[in-house]
Amino acid sequence: MPFQRLVREIAQLSHNDLRFQSHAILALQEAAEAYLVGLFEDTNLCAVHAKRVTIMSKDVHLARRIRGERP
Predict the structure, then answer these.
(1) This prediction's pTM
(2) Which segments of the protein form a coiled coil according to its record (predicted)?
(3) CB atoms closer than 10 angstroms to residue 63
(4) Which residues contact 4 (CB under 8 A, 6 or more apart)?
(5) Cβ distance 43 to 63 under 8 Å?
(6) Structural domain of residue 46, as residue ranges?
(7) In the prediction, which pLDDT does 70 show?
C-alpha cells in the first residue's frame, strides 16, 4: 500500500484524474525494485573497488555516472 500511495501522489503532481490498474502498480513496483537492486549492486562494486565495505553517497554517484544516468 505505501508504494501505491506514493505512485498516486506523484501522478497527482502532473494530472489530477489518473487511475491505475492494480497490475500497473505491481509492474511499477517490480521495475522500481529491479532498478534499485541493480543500482545497489553497482554501488557496492564501487565501494569494493575503493577497498571499503561500506557504501557511501559518492559510490551511488559514481555508479549512476558510469551507467550514464547523470553527468
Answers:
(1) 0.86
(2) none
(3) 21
(4) 20, 25
(5) yes
(6) 2-67
(7) 79
How many domains is the chain partitioned into structurally? 1
Cell 557504501 sits on residue: 55
pLDDT at res. 71: 64
Nearest partner of 22 among 9, 7, 35, 37, judged by Cα: 7
Reading the block at residue 52, the C-alpha cell is 571499503
The CATH number that applies at residue 39 is 1.10.20.10
For residues 44 and 52, is the Cβ–Cβ distance under 8 A? no
Joined grid coordinates for residue 46: 564501487
